[in-house]
Amino acid sequence: MSSQTATQPQDRKTPGSAYPHRPEPSSLIDRIAFPAFIVALLFLSFLGGAFVMLSNVFPAGKLSDAYRGGEALVAKMQQSRNPLASDFWAPERRPEEGVTIHNPAEAYPGYTLYTSGHGSEALLFSMDGLLVHSWQLPYSAIWSEESPVEKPQPDEFQYWRKAMMLPNGDLLAIFVATGDTPWGYGMVKLDRDSNVIWSYLGQTHHDLDVAADGRVYTLIHQMRNKTFDGFPQLTVPRLDDFVVVLSPDGKEEKRVSILDALVNSDYARLLDRVTWFNKHDFIHTNNIDVIDAQDAAVLPFAKEGQVLLSFRDIDTIAVLDLEQEKIVWALRGTWLGQHDPDVLPNGNILLFDNVGNFGPGGRSRVIEIDPLSAEEVWRYAGSAEQPFESNVRAAQQRLPNGNTLITESTGGRLFEVTDDGRIVWEFINPIRARHPERPDEVIVPVVSWGQRIAADGLDTDFREDLSRQEQERSVQ
């Protein structure tokens, strides 16, 4: 008698696969159900994510960190393709190069120092546009593993945001990079031959000043996750600014959080002016000037040793007391996105107003204000015939003869105006390139800083060396 062994049915497998073959859907409902389930799952995930972020409950912080990190990565990838495509360069506005206007009878004589988006270099030239000296150094020459910048951008994606020449020909310079956050990279002090005297690898940005005792005051920034009660708009992670004081040989002596100093002051509600577009760089400090004895004598609200700051994104200038670590005076006026406020000998403040001009000739202007009344006592703005505009960066300098040297950064131009607004000297950055993605477009590197330097304020040997170079190049 034969017997039969019962066998269980086996799933069919797709050839070459270890996974069972799923039968074809038996109806239209089966075909629709699975995609509908996936769509519903994605929609619920979206709603859940929105609830978490709007309610600021766990894991909102982690999601925000991931989003900001991804955003920074995308920006770095976009801006790292070619330095000529970065915001260190802008479309050429005029084809002229070098000195285009020079009225010797009215222009203030001296040398002009400037930094440009083309690279880590500072150039010094005569009133006639002759290059008489230069300093160069790439960031890679000072970088070390001690730097908070773990993977710096290539040297061609960096330039000197500001440089300050000392009477003996030494130079202080601030490195910044494009396509990186934070973008501040550090500071270096060079001798007149571009040899390194010292370097500081804190993430310096925008500005520096040197006190009478040789100490260097500068700005650094770093990412922080500190929150403040009563200020929910100061979300984290956040790019925060600090004032740093360096010894004459470049060693850090003091560090003060600017945001802490503002929150803990009578001016804290200025932070209600934080804008939606600043991407967690809420105040964007862009200026530091040491208040010396002369400044303190004409400013009743300030003392010697305090510092004058500028907060671009809340349209505010302020005084910080470094001992109290507190903002002790602040002012908002008719300016927007300002740069480079300077105390004048008469007690007024001169600043570059980037986008606060609403008349013809461009959005920018330079204004002199009475800080006690906020009254505007002098202004220079462009016209239809002589347009003038730099929406970012830029600077100004009141000269001893009463003229004003203006740095029109985005225009790649430096020019000097009289008290009645006449241009008596003008220089246009001669460096040119073509946009890598639009080869028909000529571009010029931004001029982020310009300064007129009187020859009689320089050490004798350096002054004589510059005069010799000027004479030699004038006959070439």
TrEMBL record:
Membrane-spanning residues: 32-54
Keywords: Membrane, Transmembrane, Transmembrane helix
Protein species of origin: Pelagibius litoralis
Gene3D superfamilies: YVTN repeat-like/Quinoprotein amine dehydrogenase
Protein name as catalogued: Arylsulfotransferase (ASST)
Region named Disordered: 1-22
Keyword Membrane: yes
Domain of life from the UniProt record: Bacteria
InterPro entries per record: Arylsulfate_ST, ASST-like, Quinoprotein_ADH-like_sf, WD40/YVTN_repeat-like_dom_sf
Signal peptide: none
